[in-house]
Amino acid sequence: MMPSVSLSAGVPRSVENLVRLSPATQGVLLGVIAALIWGLYLALARQEVAAGLSQIDIAAFRYGTAGLVLSPWLLFGWRQVIAIGIKKSLILALLAGPPFILLGVGGYRFAPLAHGAVIQPATVTMVSMGLAAMVLADRPTKARVIGVSVIILGIAVIARPGLLNGSPQALVGDAMFAGAGILWALFTLFSRLWQIPPVAGVAIVSILSGAVMLPVALAVEGIDHYAQLSVMTLTVQPLVQGILTGVVSVIAYTTAVRLIGPARAAIFPALVPASAILTGIPIASE
Questions:
Q1: Which residues cross the membrane (predicted)?
Q2: Other CB atoms closer than 10 Å to residue 157's CB: what's the count?
Q3: Coil, strand or helix at 136
Q4: What are the start-end ranges of the H helices in the chain?
Q5: I need a surface site. Which of 32, 189, 264, 272 has the fewest CB within 10 A?
Q6: Sign of the dihedral through C-alpha 64, 65, 67, 71
Q7: How far is the CA of 44 from the CAs of 41, 79, 99, 138, 233, in angstroms?
Q8: Mean pLDDT for the chain overall
Q9: What is the full DSSP assignment across 83-95?
Q10: Are 265 and 27 in contact (CB under 8 A)?
Q11: Of 171, 30, 170, 185, nearest to 122 (Cα)?
């Protein structure tokens, strides 16, 4: 959690005011940042899959970059990793690691952007609230249920044309998107249940996943495949998939979960469809 103490002289007042915000307000701002990054990630993933990249490529870019960026953190945070333990670390990596990307991105081989932008975050929202109520006894208030219902209804209105006009094979993609959403909801639950420090959680997932995906990508796709990719792809993918999505958005979201709880934080994935669809207009031409 961000400190609420006064900053030293010379720090811009706008930054000081931001740090002095209440934990709830900080949580909301961090959740919105995560939702905006996720929208960009979904639109870019759809565009790159249409251009020929595989889900293995995107997973390698995401976890390989994030793992390299966060590896130096182990020098200072190894005590947190030891405290979390191997079992919990493996579970977190399984939920938010390669299976999440392979399902969430692989679904675009069968279904368009609107499906992924709607089904995956809607699943996260509903499953997260249900799990928080059952496991953490964080039962949603009447106002929260009404608010989420309105958001889900809005999502349905946005997605209706694409969902109704989809091909039969789109059901395969839809199931993959739902599976990715369930994995992320479980990751959210266990992060809160085990009180996982945000940076430690991201570092564990990224480093373990990167250690798996980089050798797999090289074995499956080959070095020649990556040597032929454009400079733009080799620049944008590590930046967006690795740093923004793999590090910044996950830290922002897990911090929001710690500040306001998983049931309230479940609202942020519901903001992703609008973000993804609007971003997808210029990026994915959909």
A1: 21-41, 61-78, 90-111, 117-136, 143-163, 169-187, 199-219, 239-260, 267-285
A2: 9
A3: coil
A4: 13-19, 23-51, 55-70, 74-84, 86-96, 98-106, 113-135, 142-164, 170-193, 198-221, 223-227, 231-237, 250-260, 262-265, 272-283
A5: 32
A6: positive
A7: 5, 36, 19, 34, 11
A8: 82
A9: HH-HHHHHHHHHH
A10: yes
A11: 185
Residue listed under structure tokens 């400190």: 3
d(CA 116, CA 108): 7
Token reading at 198: 């945000």
Size of the chain in residues: 286
Residues near 190 by beta carbon (within 8 Å), at least 6 away in sequence: 88, 91, 92, 95, 196
Q: Rounded to an integer, what distance in angstroms lies between the CA atom of residue 276 and that of residue 260?
A: 24
170-216: per-residue pLDDT in tens?
788 888 999 999 999 999 899 889 999 988 999 999 999 999 999 99
| Contact between 118 and 270 (Cβ < 8 Å) | no
Buried b (16+ CB within 10 A) or exposed e, 65-104: bbbebbeebeeebeebbeebeeebbeebbbbbbbbbbbbb
Q: Are 38 and 245 in contact (CB under 8 A)?
A: yes
User: What is the identity of the amino acid at 120?
Assistant: Q
Two tokens, residue 179: 């599976």
